[in-house]
């Protein structure tokens, strides 16, 4: 598992024919590789550093050692995974049930809540630095 400390990471899945589906962009404070850390299976997505990035690596053995000592870690991890599942449900609903304009609006709404939490400020902002190509993906 990697905890991102600097930069931006794109998570995506792709077909053998080269088609790519961008799942999300990760920023400092986000983590990746938690599924493989828990179940020991191969990764489920590709990670690409979009800009110079650094992170803290936690291997499975180290994670399990900490989990044995910290009784609240499994529940915290379950909350994190529940959040990922809710986000995935939101994204699937958006892709399957809404037209392009609605998908773009939902993308920005989702991004605002990721950045600011449930209570949005009066004038919320998002600073992603995405190109038009990355945004369309």
Number of helices: 5
Q: Biggest sheet: strands side by side, in what order?
A: 4-1-6
Shape: globular
* Biggest sheet character: 3 strands, antiparallel
| Element order: H for helix, E for strand | EEEEHEEHHHH
* Through-space gap between termini: 25 Å
Radius of gyration: 16 Å
Strand residues, percent: 15-25%
Question: Helical residue percent?
Answer: 40-55%
Structure summary, number of beta strands: 6
Low-confidence stretches: none
Structural class: alpha+beta
Q: Give the mean pLDDT.
A: 88
Describe it.
The protein is α+β, with helices and mostly antiparallel strands and 137 residues long. The chain has 5 helices and 6 strands, in the order ββββαββαααα. The protein has a 3-stranded antiparallel beta sheet, with no helix packed on it. The two termini are 25 Å apart.
């Amino acid at each position: 598992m990697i905890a991102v400390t600097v930069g931006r990471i794109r998570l995506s899945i792709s077909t053998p024919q080269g088609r790519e589906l961008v799942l999300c962009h990760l920023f400092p404070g986000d983590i990746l590789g938690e599924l493989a850390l828990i179940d020991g299976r191969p990764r489920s997505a590709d990670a690409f550093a979009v800009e110079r990035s650094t992170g803290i690596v936690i291997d499975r053995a180290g994670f399990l050692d900490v989990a044995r000592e910290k009784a609240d870690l499994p529940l915290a991890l379950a909350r994190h995974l529940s959040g990922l599942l809710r986000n995935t449900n939101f994204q699937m609903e958006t892709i399957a049930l809404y037209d392009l304009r609605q998908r773009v609006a939902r993308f920005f709404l989702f991004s605002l809540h990721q950045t600011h939490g449930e209570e949005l400020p009066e004038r919320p902002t998002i600073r992603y630095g995405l190109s038009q190509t990355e945004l369309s993906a």
